[in-house]
Amino acid sequence: MPMPDSDVVHLRAGGTSFVVELTEPVPRILHWGTDLGELSEAGRSALRLTAEPAVLNNSIDSPRRFSIWPTEAEGWSGTPAHQGHVEGSATSPRPQLAGAMSRQLPEGAWELVIELGDEISGLDIEITYRLTAAGILEVSAGLTRRGGTDDPGPYSLADACTLLPLPGRATEVLDFTGKWCRERAPQRRPLAFGSHAREVRRGRPGHDSPYLLAAGVPGFGFRTGEVWGVHVAWSGNQRYLVERMPEGAGTHAAVLGGGELLVPGEVRLRPGEAYRTPVCYFGWSDRGLDGLADRFHEMLRARPSHPSTPRPLVLNTWEAVYYDYDADRLIALADRAAEIGVERLVLDDGWFTGRRNDRAGLGDWTVDEEIWPGGLTPLADHVHALGMQFGLWVEPEMVNLDSRLGRQHPEWILGPSAGLGPSARHQYAVNLADHEAWTYLLKSLDAIITRYAIDYLKWDHNRDLHEAVRRAGDGRDRPGVHAQTLALYRLLDTLRARHPALEIETSAGGGGRIDLAILQRADRVWASDCNDPVERQAIQRWTAQLLPPELIGAHVGAEQAHTTRRVTSQSFRLATALFGHAGIEHDLTGCSREELGRLAAWAKMYREFRPLLHHGRVVRADVGDEATMLHGVVSRDATAALFCWARLTTSAEGQSGRERFPGLAADRDYQVRIRGDAGYPSMHQTAPPAWLRHALDGWVGIPGVILSRAGLPMPALNPEQAMLIEMRETRK
Ligand code: DGJ
Fold first, then answer.
1. Which of 25, 171, 296, 592 has the most CB atoms in a 10 Å sphere around its CB?
2. Which residues of 339-363 are buried (b: 16+ CB within 10 A; e: fewer)?
3. What pLDDT is recorded for position 2?
């Protein structure tokens, strides 16, 4: 590999700099964060010089360094980049620089590949840094066991993670937790000494997925503060880590990173075999969490695979009919859906053989002839004839013991030979790493997609994987999550290659499997099973920390939410579901004329605003009162915006006060109006602020400087209400 011209390699894109010095034995990271501009020779030398910290008392006798692959060999006492052994030996790696190459990629991205060799563990390690045009740094590593005649046995890789340094001013940590129907609940804490490690052993990211681990300056908010974050793009077991050592990391204070969480013995590398870490996406922003979200959205939108067609309005049948299938009822539902402007109908769980409830049928991916004597053709044809796409729910990785598959192929079930552990939702996972099981699933899905011209699959995964043990070729039980995850990717990739127009939604009991690796194979995430708009406002707000709205499924549910029993107004439900890839999950055949009328008006508004909502910049205001939220989407040229002012609960304060609208241009003039197409919110006051009285009647001119800097006095809405505010730049 040819070495770059300079020993200081500067990757620079999207307002972010990443600088590495190609020193021996292992290159070190000089900088990650704000753009340093064109670095002169003097600048490079100064970075080199200032990367050398003091030598501490009672410490190693040379200045500490933080390398790209930290190990004990450099006096690093924190989490090492990799750990492992060969039969209890080769436990202390000594990596050594073997080569490096940097190059510019299309669209302004940069890549740096560094090769290390380690004689002790017999590994060649190749680390790839790719700085995207949006300023997100993708980091991954490949570890290949060297070949040789003298084989001392497989190298058991315990752990491999990618780490970047954090400066001392990043003292506050934000990550996420959650549960079914309450995904991506944020949690904050000070960054103390020691490790804050989040380890996921669910075989999927989970409802409590850390999702994005961020560290920033004290009090960093949506709009302000410097913040660094990492996302692990992996759909199996995983770990996130932020670690602060008293001796620091070179001249930095802490480290941030992550990788796959490996079970002991899961990866054993024989000569010639390789392991690749998941990609960790690292982002930096000096514009708070919105700046970070903006980078991720920009990067995702630049992918060639990013959905490019307008996101069709969905009707999903789950909360409309559950398992209560009746062909005539579904035809009537499809008719209503088409009337109000739905563009894609998704037949959820329950259409396949033996599936009358959640206890049976998983694995038997053929149409249930008892319910559908002529197969799905009449419904699929009807839906297509109404001009809608037709989608189907599947959960291919799962099996009920009460199914043909479960009875005929118990050997395909993922679990130890000592016997299966507890079922979850009455189901177990299929061992996808078993070639026959994998082929069976591929053939079954392929046949269904082809026969019914399926446009869309909602791909579910309704349980954590426990004791995910697979029977290996040698007849022994081996850890299975790593192999399962790769086999899942192969299955999705193969189906997509065979059906290039097919779109896929990732669901896992709601939002239990949302990560950027599954999103290379999916076009939408089902953010949560909770359609209650109060919960949804929060779930969508934080799901958007990583994903742009067009990838986030958001449905209007029934007046009384099925998952919380909370009763909310239709206008609040509609306003909430607008800010995503919108859909309906509601029995339209039971709706009144008025309700259907508002749904139709909302569907029209969704079509009107979707170019803005699905291409613009997501903005979230830092509002002092947690009972309220102000968020919106502003076009990238700041000429148009749609905001949502939502009140979740009451407050002790009477006036809501002035709120500033983020993302607008202070030097332009705007007109503002309230959109009530889908209903207006009810207010907790006898008369609204003066500007609002006018905006409820039509356009009101307000300069950008007032909107964005002084702010507008906001109305006090009743709890569980939302108001939609449209803004447009005034044409001169
Ligand atoms: C869990 C999903 O998140 C729901 O939307 C629904 O598809 C059910 N599974 C069906 O079993």
1. 296
2. ebbbbbbbbbbbbbbbbeebbbbbb
3. 64
